[in-house]
Amino acid sequence: EKHHIGLGLQRLNGRKALFYARYRGTEGGDLDRIERQQQLVSALREKALRWSTVKKMPEVLGILEEHVHTDLGAVEAVSLARALVGKGRDARMTTMRLEGTPATLEDGSQVLLPDHETNAAIIERFEDR
């Protein structure tokens, strides 16, 4: 299924949002895709914190329980929810990019091999925020 997403502010239905989050056809490939996924999570978080949405939480949780299958336990799910809503609607998501070297595996898969030493320092700075 093909989708076209125009320039500028867009209102996406579920299918277009999924297409937007999964699309790899840009120069930056997976790295651009990750950025789009972060934008989508931020927009969903903002929408989820609207009072009109919060009032529907029991209904939403029932739908999630019926249709979402995960190995995430209840404690982890609550922790994740707290992290997403804990700072309120105006909180900004903070991200940091870890370092790696592009490589191609024997099966042709393209990967980033992590630079563990550099990434340990980046993670330490991130945690100190």
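(the above was protein one; protein two follows)
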Amino acid sequence: MLKRRLSMLTFLVAISAAAFAGDKEHGTVITDVMLHVSPDPTSQQLSKVTRGRDIFLMDHTMVDKKPWAHLLAVVDVDVERETARSISGWVPADSVVTTSTPNGDQIIYGEAVDSEGRADQGRKNARDDARRLYYRLYEYFPDSPLAGEALWRATDIQWKQEKADVSRRPSSREMDPSLRVAINDEGAKLVMKKYPHTRWSDLAAYDLIDNKVCGAWKGETKCPEKESEIYEKYAREHPESPKTAEALYNAATRQGALVEMFRANHEQDKSEKARKKGMELAQEIATKFAEGDWKPRALELMYALQQGIPTYNADADRSAK
């Protein structure tokens, strides 16, 4: 329901702003900037417009040899109340990038990357700034070579934020993934639709797995069995993905867990079958992925499976709540 409300509100905001602005130029701001009543820094302040907000360029002028832009901007959106507020005012023109700005896609992308970095340094709301800027690039410059990556990055930021929120809920420990709040998958599916058979669609497809895995296994074999199948299926369907080795490793570790689970249930045949399957998957990683961390991690897993070293703590898993 929340997803539908958010989508509808976004749509209505865009339609109402576009109707008011007519054929005015579309754009965004690349720094937080204050709207003024008139093109004068000493004039009354109306509202702050933050990075990546959707704006329309209504007019422009020169004051004391400095360019000013007259904007219509959406400055406040309340999803719960299904309301939005647009306001017009003047800002220094050097903070505005529109669809006609030379290298506009590059400029927006650069500011988005910088905002992500600033988030790691503690700047408040910097990741939200980056998410909006990435999406604006995709929206305004769909033919840019950066558009696919920008849409993916916007989606990935949102995905990680929602995943963290979901993980804090009690339902996140439910075995059945249908019993917890699902992460909004509209963005990931849009990436896959708009940019199929690309690095970005592969990454988006990998994120979708989060909604399919168990929150906790609680000692039940059905969870690692299902998850191993999901991860291996992803690897087979996305052999060129940056996540292929990781998916195979996740599939292999699930088999390693099944070795101990079946052994504890006195199902030796199933335990041995899981051990062999885990070895095969780990060997595939070691053979195909010589670069990076996945080969040594796979070899370590193979060693544990060969030596009978448990890779799964059944008691700790069963106590998960």
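Reviewer note on protein two: Confidence is low (pLDDT under 50) at residues 1-21.
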